[in-house]
């Protein structure tokens, strides 16, 4: 994995750049000491590290606007950063960049229970939104496993999901509007406080744009009332393929659970040792299925899921008897990533999405790849929407194991595309999947996506080196072929 070559002329001006930015926004903390830059050298994809040229911590939209405008005028690259929990390298710095941390944008600005929305700053953590409204019986639906730490701004950048996204949608389905600062320093608002806005859906373009188009400084999110009843089921299977078939059967019966998650034996044992959630240790795969809604509906659906599970070979069925037990079932799943760290020195977390009906086949082929590469894999994923999170187990201290894990991961993602899926479900492309984009998109597709990037950031200064395997200059993308001195369509007026 290679990042863009640093600009020597910019690096030579490092001291001058730091001094100029301090003078431009004197109230903003500027970090440029090598020791203080270390915490920013990577994000959740810790296999790749690169300290930034300097870090800035603004607190207001006006400060962000002045910083971006100055950097564009001076040709200095900017990498936005939220909480740094990205697992795709989306916040990986460049050696010649200003890393713009939004950590101080950490306030909930307002809550409107009548219109069911909250206006928050991007540095607010995901879980903090729910905690702010739960005393009134509301919550924020997208709930990534890292919700205690990940920020709303980062969720917007990566279009994050979570265990309840099957029924309630990803970030894009729960964001009503954003305030955005463009690389030029211009401040724009997209969407708002209403269900829909007229004109082009630019808000839909920003959610999931991975910090390539602008810096989000305010987010309007939906909040939802909690369901009358919610129950979670633990369903154990003697074979991973049986669990995959059960997932497809539940959905094909027209049942949309609030969440449907799956773990294999390695992940089950790791999570149980870590959280003591009461998971069975004698099964090969475990489904956690949550049903919610009115009490009568919830009870009926629990019975239907139990019937479908038995028909698909379930060897264990257990339903939560209290809210505390339901939360404990989920606590084990949400702690699965750190728990796997107890059984392997390092792991490489993948993120791909497949059609649900191909789940048994893909799990079987991943097992074969695990044997081929000689590396273990723990499967933890959002089974309901086919979003896989295989954790490839390796030891970085052994020469060549990281490279082997990367190759294994690339083959998993190629497999996802081969069966009709996509490269990412919620972690984004970042640098991790950047060089695999041609597996899914043609050169024409990628050129069109880069043209959109050029419309927002013609200087290619905002988060460069991410998403696109080959970054063209905007002038190259807009060039027109001249044949024997003649332009195409000569009858059209040129402006």
TrEMBL record:
UniProt keyword list: FAD, Flavoprotein, Oxidoreductase
Needed co-factor(s): FAD
InterPro entries in UniProt: FAD-bd_oxidored_4_C, FAD-bd_PCMH, FAD-bd_PCMH-like_sf, FAD-bd_PCMH_sub2, FAD-linked_Oxase-like_C, FAD-linked_OxidoTrans_Type4, Oxid_FAD_bind_N, Vanillyl_alc_oxidase_C-sub2
Molecular functions per Gene Ontology: (S)-2-hydroxy-acid oxidase activity
Source organism, top-level taxon: Bacteria
Stretches assigned to the FAD-binding PCMH-type domain: 48-226
EC number in record: 1.1.3.15
EC category name: oxidoreductase
Protein name: Glycolate oxidase
Organism name: Sphingobium lignivorans
